[in-house]
Write a structure and sequence with these properties.
The chain has 406 residues and is of the alpha/beta class. The protein contains 15 helices and 17 strands. The protein is globular, with a radius of gyration of 23 Å. The mean pLDDT is 94.
Length: 406
């Protein structure tokens, strides 16, 4: 994306990193997390051990986005500042920005309403990025634009743009309603014949494979099924002839790779290996931070654990992926934040891993006695202080005070 002027478009901050570091540390650093690192990611008090995955919490892209938001407030102390949706999927971080006077725009059915933005205002674009239409609207307004889009997301955009340029439909493994996926899918609009199709999981990918092979649902049924997840004018008979696979950066890496292989195999079965070679492309566009956190949690799950806690927003895709991995191996509680753990009552408020689950409350989730080993990880939008608070509350559930956790 290119903007009209170096004085109105910023992607590299304002050179104020040193000025905001102490404020960021106060708001988000955690003493217990530092202690866990010092103790080989393990803390034991009495007969309770908490083991933290070696990669967790804020990734570089999230740190950068939050830092740039703080720099923006410092750079423009007197101006109105708007944020296009949430900066990241963490309620505490977004609440802190509101306290700093940043107004978060909430999308309606027709998208974001930018009529409140004036040319002298400042608009922050989140780590997920914004759609091409939103970007062009903001550019036309002439406001100052602060772009915090994650570099890993930009890499996917380049891939999708190349697919559209070369006449391939982008098959995106992601959630069609997610900010990142909507922004990624919009990149095809740079080319008049660009198209995309979003699949949520392997089940939907196999529907696509069946259609490619001439079986499964009818043309009308296919269009109805993917009406909200396809580009305008998408026709599976025309637009599944050449396919390039990409993904939302925070999805389960193994599933994204498997979907790419399934689609390629279906094209080969339908049209032969030469057709596949010329009409199919796939690349692993999972970001390295997402992959590192998934690998780290798998390594932790090799150890004997009684329970696993995953901390992060319910709308955080990378957190949901971590919870899904953990739930395959051990009883797992995905909590939105540390406040969901109630030491006094012995309850925990959580959402089970998987799709379409409502929040639940479980009493006695930790036995009152006996040795316990508890695993812990956190999504890439969870700050260290909230991870530390979770550690405190876990120990407190067994009557262990913070000062005893050393």
């Amino acid at each position: 994306m290119m903007a009209q002027s170096d004085t109105t478009y910023f992607r590299k901050g304002f050179g104020l990193k040193a000025e905001v570091q102490s404020e960021l540390a106060t708001d988000y650093d955690g003493r217990l997390v530092d202690l866990l690192r010092e103790r080989d990611f393990s803390l034991t008090a009495r007969d309770v051990t908490v083991r933290l995955a070696r990669e967790f919490g804020f990734c570089y892209g999230v740190e950068r986005a939050v830092e740039y938001a703080y720099q923006t407030r410092r750079k423009f102390p007197e101006r109105r500042i708007f944020l296009v949706g949430e900066i990241i999927h963490n309620p505490h971080v977004n609440a802190k920005l509101r306290e700093m006077g940043v107004e978060i725009l909430v999308p309606g059915e027709a998208g974001f309403d930018y009529t409140v933005v004036r040319p002298e205002d400042v608009v922050i674009m989140p780590a997920f990025g914004v759609t091409m239409a939103d970007f062009e609207t903001l550019r036309a307004l002439g406001c100052v634009m602060v772009d915090t889009t994650c570099g890993s997301v930009l890499n996917v955009w380049k891939r999708v743009e190349s697919y559209a340029r070369d006449g391939y439909t982008s098959l995106i493994h992601g959630k069609y309603y997610h900010e990142e996926t909507r922004a990624t899918a919009s990149q095809v609009s740079k080319y008049p014949n660009g198209h995309y199709l979003v699949v949520r999981q392997m089940e939907e990918a196999r529907m696509v494979c069946d259609y490619i092979e001439g079986k499964g649902m009818s043309h009308a049924a296919f269009i109805a099924k993917f009406a909200h997840a396809a580009s305008p004018g998408f026709d599976p008979d025309l637009h599944l002839q050449k396919v390039g696979v990409a993904n939302q950066t925070t999805m389960l890496a193994r599933e994204s790779l498997a979907i790419g292989e399934e689609v390629g195999a279906a094209m080969e079965r339908a049209h032969g290996p030469e057709h596949r070679a010329e009409h199919f492309r796939t690349f692993d566009t999972i970001c390295s931070a997402t992959q590192d956190r998934q690998d780290a949690v798998r390594a932790l799950l090799e150890e004997p654990l009684d329970v696993m806690i995953v901390v992060g927003g319910y709308n955080s895709s990378n957190t949901l992926s971590l919870a899904a991995i953990c739930a395959e191996r051990v009883k797992t509680f995905h909590v939105e934040d540390a406040a969901a753990i109630y030491p006094v009552t012995g309850e925990i408020r959580y959402r089970p891993a998987g799709l379409h689950h409502e929040e639940r409350v479980e009493r006695g989730w930790l036995p009152i006695d006996g040795a316990l080993r508890i695993g812990l990880t956190a999504g890439a939008s969870t700050p260290n202080n909230k991870i530390g608070e979770a550690v405190v509350r876990i120990f407190a559930t067994r009557g262990i005070a913070p000062e005893d956790v050393v």
